[in-house]
Write a structure and sequence with these properties.
The chain is of the alpha/beta class. It is built from 11 helices and 10 strands. The strands form 2 sheets. The chain has an 8-stranded parallel β-sheet with strand order 3-4-5-6-7-8-9-10. A two-stranded antiparallel sheet has the order 1-2. Strand 7, helix 6 and strand 8 form a beta-alpha-beta unit. It starts with a helix and ends in a 10-residue tail after the last helix. The structure holds adenosine-2'-5'-diphosphate. Adenosine-2'-5'-diphosphate binds next to helix 10.
């Protein structure tokens, strides 16, 4: 009993960065992940991931499509941190919609990362990026069945999807065995994802939030800045904390050490009234250059 009480006390005083969620198969996932989309392969990725690990991140998100898996793997292996203390996600490229192709792609991911196992492997999107909206129901089932095979082999601890709508997930549930552990979606203050989130909550599928800062375009939003001022934190910290309080795992990206650190300092509580105010922000400010 005493042991339990100490455990609870320690847990309550633990920094968010060191806290985890538990996925539907019992695997633990650190609440804050380090996003590596748009970080250049090679030195830029190696340095950014090295800094992230140095400053306490234990969850790194990459993808075959980012072309930086090799540098992520090198940084993780060179860090000296035991492999089992770092949660690494990679993604099956969006155009691979067949069983054999998915098996091959996973082998390539593992070779690039230089790991014996991966923590999470997810289908990057329900359709190829070049054909958004295309009906790939059969292909998604074929690719997911390959991922189930890999999962059962123990080479990956959890499997899931990304950018999937409720209909896309239902297709997987109807034809496959393993309920996806995760749906990684674009989610940030102002972007209404309630339909997908409610559906995933119902099915026990955990939500990871990519682009938590709206790829940076959200940071000059006046409402967010008003709330940030009140708590004496930055707009970025409000964006990240908001997603934690929504029960999701934000994946902020930065290549700058100060920001990499700042994005972990979210051990404050946004009051209900301010969460409600942030909920009134509407729209997607992202611009694609
Ligand atoms: P940089 O990498 O130059 O630091 P998202 O995580 O939503 O994709 O947003 C990433 C963008 O936000 C990047 O352009 C990143 O720039 C910028 N960014 C990340 N953290 C911060 C921060 N704490 N303050 C300001 N900008 C940030």
């Amino acid at each position: 009993m005493i042991h339990d009480r100490i455990g609870l006390k320690e847990m309550l005083s633990m920094k968010v960065l060191n806290q985890t969620y538990t996925l539907n198969n019992g695997v633990k996932i650190p609440k804050i992940g380090f996003g590596t989309w748009q970080i250049k392969p090679g030195d830029e990725t190696y340095q950014a991931v090295t800094l992230a690990l140095k400053h306490g991140y234990r969850h790194i998100d990459t993808a075959e499509g980012y072309r930086n898996e090799k540098s992520v793997g090198e940084a993780v292996r060179d860090s000296g941190i035991p492999r089992e203390e770092i949660f690494v996600t990679s993604k099956l490229e969006s155009h691979i919609k067949d069983y054999e192709g998915a098996l091959r792609a996973f082998d390539e991911t593992m070779e690039a990362l230089g790991f014996e196992y991966l923590d999470l492997f997810i289908i990057h999107a329900p359709w190829p990026w070049s054909e958004m909206g295309k009906d790939c129901k059969e292909g998604n089932v074929a690719a997911y069945k390959a991922m189930e095979k890999i999962y059962k082999s123990g080479r990956v601890k959890a499997i899931g999807v990304s950018n999937f709508s409720p209909e896309d997930i239902q297709n997987i549930l109807d034809h496959c065995e393993v309920v996806p552990a995760v749906n990684q979606i674009g989610y940030f203050i102002g972007l209404d994802q309630s339909k997908t989130i409610n559906y995933c909550n119902e099915k026990g599928i955990f939500i990871e939030a990519y682009s938590p800062l709206g790829i940076g375009y959200l940071l000059d939003n006046p409402v967010i800045n008003e709330v940030a001022k009140k708590y004496n934190v930055s707009a970025a910290q409000i964006c990240i904390r908001y997603l934690i309080q929504k029960g999701t795992a934000p994946l902020p990206k930065s290549i700058h050490e100060k920001r990499i650190i700042q994005n972990t300092e979210v051990d404050f509580e946004i009051k209900d009234e301010d969460m409600k105010l942030l909920d009134t922000v509407k729209g997607d400010p992202r611009r694609w250059s």
